[in-house]
């Protein structure tokens, strides 16, 4: 676990299949490698999935992370969050 936890909630009426993090971008003093994360798990309607990107983060200061999530049904969602990083330790309020 790298300290960055992503929450994805299915707000639709049907199951989302093969949910994938297709893009992760971070603004701030953070070094990371952007790899696609596939949870390979279905998300039932009203259910929340928690996952972490498969990457190592290191940096210093405030950052904003923006993520794009897709599923087999062709639905795309984007979200963002702010945090603070000190070396490899990530704090998200």
Short description:
With 93 residues, the chain is mostly beta strands.
Description of the molecule:
By secondary structure, the chain is mainly β. It has no helices and seven strands. The strands form two sheets. The chain has a five-stranded antiparallel β-sheet with strand order 3-2-5-6-7, with no helix packed on it. Strands 1-4 form a two-stranded antiparallel sheet. The protein is elongated. The two termini are about 15 Å apart.
Fill in the keyword field for this structure.
single chain; 93 residues; mainly beta; 7 strands; 0% helix
In helices, the fraction of residues equals under 10%
Distance between the termini: 17 Å
Shape: elongated
> How many strands in all?
7
Contiguous helical run count: 0
Strand order of the largest sheet: 3-2-5-6-7
Beta content: over 45%
SSE topology string: EEEEEEE
Whole-angstrom Rg? 14 Å
Largest sheet: 5 strands, antiparallel
Which structural category do the helix and sheet elements fall into? mainly beta
Uncertain residue segments: none
Overall mean confidence score, pLDDT: 87
């Amino acid at each position: 676990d790298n300290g960055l936890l992503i929450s994805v909630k299915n707000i639709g009426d049907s199951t989302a299949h093969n949910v994938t993090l297709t893009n992760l971008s971070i603004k701030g003093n953070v070094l990371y490698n952007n790899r696609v994360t596939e949870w390979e798990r279905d998300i039932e309607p009203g259910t929340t999935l928690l996952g972490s990107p498969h990457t190592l983060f290191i940096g210093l200061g405030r950052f904003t992370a923006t993520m794009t999530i897709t599923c087999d049904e062709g639905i795309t969602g984007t979200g963002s969050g702010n945090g603070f990083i000190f070396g490899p330790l990530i704090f998200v309020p």
